[in-house]
Amino acid sequence: GFASGTVAGANTRRYHALLLVARTPPGERVVLKPMNPFERKVVHDAVAAAGAVSVSEGEEPNRRIVVTAE
Fold first, then answer.
1. Would you state the pLDDT for residue 61?
2. Are 32 and 47 in contact (CB under 8 A)?
3. From 7-11, 12-16, 46-50, 56-60, the region with the lowest mean pLDDT
4. Continuous segment of H or E residues that includes residue 64
5. What is the pTM of this model?
6. The dihedral sign for the CA sequence 9, 32, 62, 44
7. Angle CA(33)–CA(29)–CA(26) in degrees, nearest 5?
8. Closest Cα partner for 46 from 32, 27, 57, 59?
9. 14-25 residue pLDDT tens
10. CA nearest 37: which of 15, 64, 13, 18?
11. Which residues pair with 55 in a beta bridge?
12. Are 39 and 2 a contacting pair, CB within 8 Å?
């Protein structure tokens, strides 16, 4: 799991998101586990920086990110 609420945890989430984007074939969707708003923001930023698209789906506390490679 991630070390929530720490700088190391944020870096781990960002790294995980970048690996996920790199391994997502074009046109496929990858659904991540539910995350809190801070974790989702870190992952959304990393995915956008990598040139992919992410959206949040669901309701708290089960809101999750869906990543698609373009």
1. 93
2. no
3. 7-11
4. strand 64-68
5. 0.74
6. positive
7. 140
8. 32
9. 777 777 777 778
10. 64
11. 66
12. yes
